[in-house]
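HUMAN: Forgive my ignorance: could you write out one protein's sequence and backbone structure tokens?

ASSISTANT:
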Amino acid sequence: MSSSTIQQKQDPKNGSSPGFRFVQGVAQVTGGTVLGITMLTSSIVAGGLVGLATSFRNLPDVRVLRGYVPTETSYIYDVKGKSLASLHGEANREVVKLDKISPTLKRAVIAMEDSHFYMHHGINPNSVGRALLANWERGSVVEGGSTLTMQLVKNLFLSRERRFSRKIAEAVLAIRVEQIFAKDQILEMYLNQIYWGHNNYGIQTAAESYFGKSADKLNLAESAMLAGLIQSPEEYSPFVNLEVAKERQAIVLSRMQKMGWITPAEAEAARNQKLKLGKITSWQTSELPFITEAVVAELNERFGRDTVLKGGMRVQTTIDYNFQRMAEETVTRAHRNLRRRGIYADQVALAAVDPRTHFVKALVGGVNYDKSQFNRAIQSRRQPGSSFKPFVYYTAFATGKYGPGSTVMDTPVSYRDGSGYYSPRNYGGGYSGAMSIRTALTVSANVPAVKIGRAVGLDKVIEVCRTLGIKSPMEPVTSLPLGAIGVTPLEMAGAFATFASNGWHSDPTVIVRVTDSAGNVLLDNTPKPRLVLDPWATASLTSVMQNVITSGTGKAAQIGRPAAGKTGTTSSERDIWFAGYTPQLSTAVWVGNDNYRPIGGGATGGVYVAPIWRSFMLNALKNEPVQYFQPASKFERP
């Protein structure tokens, strides 16, 4: 038999005996008989298509697949490994190795889609022949005849349009792929690449979505049903129509039995097996959305959004699921209590940071995420009021010229500020004359803070804030010491965490570690603390801030162990705060309205926010031993 001419004897599809033959890749009619094809050898069809390849010089170079990394879903976990969320663009995919896929699934797919997969070299002559005949008779592409390899290159390289030229290009690329890659490599790429319905790409996410298990655990009944989905995933989905899905499953099982890959008894048992369906997981919402948002923001900043959505990252966060839930419940309960007490505040936000690592331990961006997705803990800059004063007094202590016992005058003063004058006033009015810095901060006197800020230099205060990781915009205006700028709760909690650690600082993070799907480390946030503050000045500040809780404006924050903190209330009563710390945890709580409406007359951080801080800290530290702050006497004064 000539290698250039194959005479067809019978069309296996309709039993006719046409005089149709393939000569050098060109279909010719002989004797005016009805056209048909029943058998073509792989070598001849391949030779004909390779001959046509000169017309497809612009086809992709399949060698790029050697370094091909499919888009893959990224996953976020809590610090103990509990799944919190999945992140992906259009393709929800988790790549797995071929040996991590059930053998029955591989056999079912091959039986249904390309039973000669391990015998051909990219194209199946019988299938191509049948498709060419059908397409020629209809005058358009109505039948594919695609092998698994052809389907793979179509998904990766070619458009979806049904044209003869695309089918020929598909075949040419398939032959090229088979020349470069082993069959198992092609099958692995195929099973990880194709679409399985409901935004599941690749067999792993399909197995998890349809049956709640990994791909290596699929049994025969489940494998047959999945293999039956490939041609039209949404139409044959058991989530859409279980009866149709069962019909497709039966077809796959019959095909596998006919090929001798399973016994009649195995086929019957699989058909009768009751399936336990999973749930559509590709668009699942996060259980801890405020945390997920913060994680995504940090990932996007480091890696870029496209990589995050498609890079198959495995992200371990700093958050314990139960701890975060406790924080959210604390905020919800606190908001309810505030409204009951006549405080017109729509929102509460909380951020907690471990001073030993600067790992974020809790992040609550609002009262109800379902009603408002705005994450106030990291996105909302609000005036901190008097809770900003510790930055001013630390700056003073760090000069060595001031200490907790230094005297400052609480007396009227005016400063030229822009085109006019600024005259600070104390909350509630009045002046107290000479007082120590300890007393000034304990009772939250405003005038002494402004005077000390001017004396040490407002630029120096801003410099300290930057050292502590506060990135929000700041200007050296005279009212800066009274918190006349905007900061986020996380910035406050992170900065106070450095006070709590006696000057040791790391950048606050919600991420412990990031790897790719193969386990390669992409980001390791193992703490690398550096000493950024003067230890004596920090210990002195902590000593003073302890007085705020024991005998000052923050008495409602007492938790039965050493703690330091500061209340904050803006003059317009639009924002009220409490920020404080123990050696193990630093927490900032803000209360206010998104529209900046005043909360209500007499609303202060000491009266209404300190109790929220106390409630959270009591729960957070209930299993932690009592620890003490280091006294300033242990350090040398600058």
Summary: Confidence is low (pLDDT under 50) at residues 1-48, 51-55, 140-144. The CA atoms of residues 84 and 268 lie 40 Å apart. The longest strand covers residues 347-353. Residues 321-340 form the longest helix (20 residues).
